[in-house]
Fold:
Amino acid sequence: MNQRINQYNQPIGKAMPNWQKRALPADMYYVGKYTIVTKLTCEHSKALYECFKHSNPSNWTYLPEEPPQNYEEFEKMLLKKIASKTEVFYVVLNKETIQPLGIFSLMRIDQENGVVEVGHINFSDALRRTRISTEAHYLLAAYVFEELQYRRYEWKCDSLNAPSNKTAKRLGFQYEGTFRNNQIYKQRSRNTNWFSMLKEEWPLHKQALTQWLAEENFDDKGVQVQRLEAFKQ
Structure:
């Protein structure tokens, strides 16, 4: 692509003459092969608590909260998320059982520039490393790029959070760099790794994810035949 030059002979970015700000993320109900992603409500709280109660507390290490000690604490935390004016939380359901297994959010929502981040990912042990987990991210990305028409989708995490860094790369997010001493949380310093996926990159990632999620890519025990990376070659 030829570089655009202005009247002062300076390079400038791609023209966006018809750009309009994007809508806020809102209610959605996306159904995949194995997964449903929809808006988090208080109706999900008891089932989510039971699910998280039996998960490893180390899952909360890189989250802003500590594991709730009882249902009352958990419900209070969840209600605060549901009431947020800056973040929209979604719940991941097992399509077969309609059991809630985890939550995540769309946050740092920049309507003017079409930028949004997926964050506060809290998946129970029953959801982690499953095809439901991968499909949940697939469905949320489809909502961001195809329905809301955002142009940049971000993923940020503690630089020391190896599983999150690995998942971001596996899904197709591109590493952009590390913000050093970016945050303080839980009385410790955090360096933040930044990843992104662009709207024009989504079709290829969507194709790979669709092929990986196909029923023929799993045996009768639900074990993958080929890794997701195999479909990106």
